[in-house]
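User: I've been trying to design a sequence by hand for this structure and keep getting stuck. Would you show me what you'd pick, starting by listing the structure so we're on the same page?

Assistant: Good idea, let's start from the same input. This is the structure you sent:
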């Protein structure tokens, strides 16, 4: 018995029109931008020396988590754009 490939997750999202696809892409781009803002905010706080060592350690962990969320959203946006470029059976969306 083989173990499932945890490196790939297949998602299926119903998208009924080009407008819905554009809205989904915009939502992902906004979420990605929000995570990037969080990454930069944490990095600025660390560089500026805010907090005691325990607080700084926590900020480092939170910054790493925000970087990971940003990277995952980036992958989702890329997959959506790739899917949009691929021909569909019915020609839409």
């Amino acid at each position: 018995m083989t173990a499932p490939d945890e490196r790939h997750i297949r998602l299926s999202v119903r998208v009924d029109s080009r407008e819905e696809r554009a809205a989904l892409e915009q939502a992902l781009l906004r979420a990605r931008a929000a995570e990037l803002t969080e990454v930069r905010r944490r990095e600025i706080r660390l560089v500026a020396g805010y907090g005691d060592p325990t607080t700084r350690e926590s900020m480092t962990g939170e910054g790493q988590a925000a970087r990971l969320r940003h990277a995952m959203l980036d992958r989702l946006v890329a997959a959506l754009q790739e899917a949009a470029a691929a021909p569909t059976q019915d020609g839409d969306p």
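That's my pick for every position. To get oriented when you compare it with your attempt: The two ends are 38 Å apart (CA to CA). The mean pLDDT is 84.
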